[in-house]
Write a structure and sequence with these properties.
alpha/beta, eight-stranded parallel beta barrel, 10 helices, 8 strands, globular
Length: about 260
């Protein structure tokens, strides 16, 4: 199965340019760590991005919670992305009809498509959401993730919903690079969807608001995920941001090496 090849091997043949550069970057930096920076000030977002930058493959933002957002923030994020060699993933979770999401992605206050390498969408509205986003993102070399499963307790994204989401992705392989999910989604060898798994923690099991955590080993070896998404576990304690980023990067990479080793004949 593709999932068990090395990131470098998978990067060579991927149909999407954004996925290829992500795989190459992961191999180059020996990192499958994405940090989810859910903070509300520009200063804090930039400070965390700079501290974790050397250890991550992907910085995950929620740009619309930043209270003092301006285009200078975007410019500085882009500069950090070049300086530390990581991609930016705006976790926008688009969920509307094609025509609406097209404008939300390209225009408005945030102009997400202009700076975010990767974004994501719910599949509730159907195929049209992917087509609308692709009209904007494909010419810019962007990649889209679909929300196939969520890590929160009681999530409705499971079963049939997940199956249908994978089917939609298969019809748009030029633009859909993978899923936000808890397990790998490939069903045959030629298929290569990247699975990014949130809800990863080394020290805690939940947060009282429905979030449930799994270890990097459970995600990568046990469930075949590719990228671990960690938030508060890394920047929760401001004095240890860099130390925790190193720790999670190592745990994620060790798990990946173990998976490759287990499946090489």
């Amino acid at each position: 199965m593709n999932t068990y090849k090395t990131y470098a091997e998978r990067g060579k043949n991927h149909p999407n340019a954004c996925a290829r550069s992500l795989f190459e970057l992961m191999e180059r930096k020996k990192s499958n760590l994405s940090v989810a920076v859910d903070v509300t000030s520009k200063r804090e977002l930039l400070s965390i991005a700079d501290a974790v930058g050397p250890y991550i493959c992907l910085l995950k933002t929620h740009i619309d919670i930043v209270e003092d957002f301006d285009m200078d923030l975007v410019q500085q994020l882009q500069e950090l992305s070049k300086k530390h060699d990581f991609l930016i993933f705006e976790d926008r979770k688009f969920a509307d009809i094609g025509n609406t999401v097209k404008h939300q992605y390209a225009n408005g206050v945030y102009k997400i498509a202009s700076w975010s390498h990767i974004t994501n969408a719910h599949t509730v509205p159907g195929d049209g959401i992917i087509k609308g986003l692709a009209e904007v993102g494909l010419p810019l070399g962007r990649g889209l993730l679909l929300l196939a499963e969520m890590s929160s307790k009681g999530s409705l994204a499971k079963g049939n919903y997940t199956t249908e989401s994978v089917e939609m992705a298969r019809h748009h392989k030029d633009f859909v690079i993978g899923f936000i999910a808890q397990h790998k989604m490939n069903s045959y060898d030629e298929e290569d969807f990247i699975v990014m798994s949130p809800g990863v923690g080394l020290d805690v099991k939940g947060d009282g608001l429905g979030q449930q955590y799994r270890t990097p080993h459970e995600v990568i070896v046990g469930s075949g995920g590719d990228i671990i998404i960690v938030g508060r576990g890394i920047y929760g304690n401001p004095d240890q941001v860099e130390e925790q980023a190193k720790r999670y990067r190592q745990a994620g990479w060790d798990a990946y090496l173990e998976r490759v080793r287990l499946h090489q004949h």
